[in-house]
Amino acid sequence: MTVSVVLFTSDLRLHDHPPLRAALGSSDEVVPLFVLDRGIQDTGFDVPNRRAFLADCLTGLDAGLRERGGRLVVRSGRTAQVAAAVAAETGAAEVHVAAGVTRYASRREESLGRELRSQGRRLVVHDGVITAVPPGALVPAGSDHYAVFTPYFRRWSRERLRDPYGAPRRVTVPDGVGSEPIPARREVTGTAGGLVRGGEREGRARLAVWRRGGLGAYADRHDDLPGDATSGLSPFLHFGAVSPVEVVHRARTAGGPGAEAFVRQLCWRDFHHQMLAARPAAADEEYRDRHDHWRSEREAAGEIAAWKAGRTGYPVVDAAMRQLRHEGWMHNRGRLLTASFLAKSLYVDWRVGARHFLDHLVDGDIADNQLNWQWVAGTGADTRPGRVLNPVRQGRRFDPEGAYVRRWVPELAGLAGPAVHEPWRLTDSERARYDYPEPVVDLSEALARFRRARGG
Ligand code: FAD
């Protein structure tokens, strides 16, 4: 009997899974392994919303494997050591894994490769599992990565992706391989009340509904704050419960302007991953140094606390920040305007905001979060780093009737129509009826401060 180990990481699915497909093709038995990584737990990246979603994904993966005659093996420890130990224990000749797209994952891959080689075994690394196009596959003349989105998108759009693979019919796992219990969502405390359920089945169902429903109108509606008109696929993509290659493929076969706009957004995901793979330090350091002297956390403590609590006095900012707390997710337009508000209007270090997002976002992802934050703060890939989003104009434009604000800021629910975006225009006696704070900052002073800081 030949045995292979398939090490699952950010690819928690059975459909379109090149490592699993290759392992099943080359061996009689397969050990589907997931390691609860102590290293990740130590980084503080392991937070309740993502831990709960991960538990759903692992439970779903185990159920899917059981339907096919197999099961998931879960162990805990340092991934490289544990995977090498499982390979030794089962006599596996090969370990198959998806190519990592973060610095942490590349180091893990290197150390696992070394460990396996020393045992006379082989690590087989598969591209196109975690992103549609692998980081590093496309490079412009004279650089090792793209730093501007539009040329990357043009080049990316010409790449021919493989057709997605189906799920295997049967998975045979060797007898006697011990597993720890699979973490259960109910064991995780401190999660957001409105957190979505994770797992491949849920992800595929969402994708199918999205393809038949919202996708067609995406080009016109993706910025509609109250409309919930985006796919909601981000946590499923983050954990790999759906395959990026398959999502692109399905959107392309649906066709039309909605699908084109949606595929462009999926390209942003690959774009940020290729940036971070080339410049891993951009997770914490400015990708482009604009010589900012951000206000210290101490100096801006009150404003930061108001921003986190959704009590800045700017209703659309507060609505989005409360959506984050309640759902562990926030609409992209909300992310843009709340991030701009913190980094540019309050002139607080983007890392403070990025950390808060990572503490809550179920889709919290180092590449997408840190580089989007840098994009908004003007230290990343934005070609207009000086632009500042005005929260009142953003609210009037993307929540024209104020429905999004009224949903998340119930104190203002009595205010009809777009007036909800400017409660300070009410008379004093009207204002007294609403328990809602005064704006934490004057927007024109904030703009002047930001322009001065950037030497403009
Ligand atoms: P849709 O609009 O349906 O888009 C489909 C998919 O395209 C998304 O699921 C996502 O995978 C990808 N995508 C869309 N926009 C972007 C983008 N700007 N950058 C990268 N990928 C994109 N996305 C994350 O997945 N994780 C994060 O931690 C994250 N942090 C962000 C922080 C800030 C400050 C900003 C401005 C954006 C951030 N995004 C992040 C990107 C984006 O907001 C989310 O991917 C999107 O809101 C998820 O909702 P959706 O799946 O309904 O998106």
TrEMBL record:
Pfam families: DNA_photolyase, FAD_binding_7
Cofactor requirement: FAD
Domain of life (superkingdom): Bacteria
Keywords: Chromophore, FAD, Flavoprotein
Keyword Flavoprotein assigned: yes
Annotated ranges, domain Photolyase/cryptochrome alpha/beta: 2-131
PANTHER family hit by this protein: CRYPTOCHROME, CRYPTOCHROME CIRCADIAN CLOCK 5 ISOFORM X1
Entry protein name: Deoxyribodipyrimidine photo-lyase
Lineage of source species: Bacteria, Bacillati, Actinomycetota, Actinomycetes, Kitasatosporales
